Amino acid sequence: MTAILLDGIVQGLQLSLLAVGITLIYGLGGVLNLAHGQFAVVGGVAAAILVSAGVHPLAAAAGGIACAGLLGWLVDRTLLVPAYRYHGEDRLLLGLILTLGLSFVIDGALNYKFPEFSLTFRLPLAMVEVGGIPMRTASLAASAIAIAVFAGLFAFLRFTLLGKTIRSIIENEAGAELCGIDPGRTRTLIVILAAMMAGIAGVTQGLFSSLGTEMGPEFTTLGLLVAVVGGVRSVNGTLAAGVLLGIVNAFASHYVGAYVAYILLLSAAMATILVRPAGLLARFT
Amino acid sequence: MKSYLDLALLGIVLALVPALAGESPYYMRIATVALVMMSWTVAFNLVFAHTKQLFLCLGALAGTAAYVSVVLTRQWQLAPWITVPIGVAAAAGLGALFSYVSVLRGLGVIFIGIVTLAFSLIFHNLVLGLRELTNGETGLVSHGLGLAFLERPVAAYYVFFALLAAALAVYCVLMRSRSGMAFRALSDDELTASLSGIDVTRYKVLAAAVGSAILGAGGALYGFYNGIVSPSVFSFVGVDIPVLIALVLGGMRTRLGPLLGAAAFAVIEELVRPFGQLNVLVYGVLLIVVFLAFREGMVPALARVFAAIGASRGTRARDAASRPAREA
């Protein structure tokens, strides 16, 4: 029981890390990024290439994350520029289609270039006891990284001036603009930040299990589900939803099988949109 | 009186395809698949372009109809004449349900997209999970289940030709009736439409149900024609993306757009076939390019070219020039 719970929390933190980027880009840029999982895969693949080129694993991980960030910057400054010209529903629709197209481009390119690819950091896998349950250090490290990133993100949003401007834009873009905030520049920053967090999720995925080039759509879907359940504008809600869905998924996979578990998650997201479109856990913000 | 000359001409061209390619099963298959794609795009035109409901579950709806009819035929030895309508009804019911619920909850175009995308994935996982019924990833053999005429290339072509003609007839009747006016009004501005007394819920659900029925009919017949129904036949990449590209490429809210777009897409698909793995990348690039640079579509662009030619000759100039505005 406890083992499944811990496993769920570890998975859930990874999901939160992926989903929070979707939440931030949607909240701030008004674009639902359907290529977010692909950002994670790009980060992981870049790290793996650096490792195989003989770079130290830590530096390679940093390089992979930077690569994901660079991709985010590129996408924001080129592909999404036409979408930003529109507002509201039109921007959402165009952004959705453009990022969907982008996800296919990245998937196609990666599958073509690196078929049969898989990333695992072959670190010595020591086991430690956590509350009487043996856990792999890699899982613990991945969770610690996720928690540290979230702590940093919360501190950034709460205590820095830039974080406050970001929250003000999420509240009300026009109002923030009237106060002299440039939404475009903040948006670029957030897209880079979100892409880098996806990159971290991709790299840590390789830390405790393996990462393949075909995993982009799966990452995107899972991140989207978590973002939807958590409320697509709420960072706290996304964190809570990720952990919750991770635990639900772990228990469901164990007792009723992976397909049913996935169907449960999807139905949860569908039900959330229909019952409480602002997000199931958005109250906690 | 609106002229149907363009449709009639296109119909004659399509009807003559077997005379040109009848000897080659390969080309007949491409042509038949293009016909299926055309009817799906006609359906999506109705649902997405006319009533602004972004259904990202086209493959899943077509697949639902196909699986329902093939599984019923295999499990209970029912005749396809009975099971295909059941499959179509299942798809239409699901489409109407999504539409009704989303209007009821006031979901924007994006959230309909997410809900229907979630349904696509649920469908896919259900098919993989219910292994005893669906045979999982491998799929079910649907040949020899009582629709023998679908196994002869030319006969099958005319079956799908009839399906497309029926879909277009339904589309034209809808667009000429009160509902056509309602569609035009609510695709401009939903609030204004409902304020002027149009029952928005009714017309959106109507469009979704009719569109889903067309998707289902195409899906079920395609399931029998294809000889095998498997998750990959009705995948998101295999159905939803091509239809989306074909519709925008051809021209949204036009009568001929879905046909020209799907035909153009079939040609493009043949061109990229040699590159194998890269077709996903090509789809992505097409999706981006079409939505950024070609949002207006082929039909309005062609109409403008014809209008320009007409104007330079000075004959029928007024009629031709007013055409794009009316069509769009």
3D architecture notes:
The complex is a heterodimer of chains A (285) and B (328). Chain A is mainly alpha-helical and 285 residues long. Chain A contains 12 helices and 4 strands, in the order αααααβββααααβααα. In chain A, a hairpin with a 2-residue loop joins β2 (127-130) and β3. Chain A is globular and about 55 Å long. The relative contact order of chain A is 0.20. Chain B has 328 residues and is an all-alpha fold. Chain B contains 16 helices and 2 strands. Chain B has helices at residues 5-21, 25-50, 58-76, 80-104, 109-129, 131-134, 153-176, 178-188, 190-195, 200-226, 236-250, 257-272, 279-293, 298-313, 317-321, 323-327; strands at residues 140-141, 228-229. A two-stranded antiparallel sheet of chain B has the order 1-2. Residues 320-328 of chain B have low confidence and may be disordered. At the A-B interface, α5, α10 and α12 of A face α5, α11 and α13 of B.
